[in-house]
Design the sequence.
């Protein structure tokens, strides 16, 4: 059977682990709240798509002509 000192040591370790986990959870929540709005992400994605399509089309035309 564990001595009182061993039980206290284990409890302190568990408390420290829980505190670290709590801090990590709050950091994750903070990152989620500070992200871009959905509309901004959608606009950036569409712009990236159109730039990719345009550059691909330009390369294809350059190869056909040259």
Sequence:
């Amino acid at each position: 059977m564990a001595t009182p000192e061993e039980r206290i040591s284990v409890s302190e370790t568990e408390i420290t682990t829980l505190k670290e986990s709590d801090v990590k959870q709050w950091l994750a929540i903070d990152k989620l709240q500070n992200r871009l709005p959905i509309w901004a992400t959608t606009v950036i994605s569409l712009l990236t798509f159109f730039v990719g399509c345009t550059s691909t089309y330009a390369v294809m035309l350059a190869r056909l002509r040259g």
User: Anything to note?
Assistant: The radius of gyration is 27 Å. The chain has a mean pLDDT of 89. The chain has two domains: 1-35, 36-66. The CA atoms of residues 42 and 48 lie 10 Å apart.
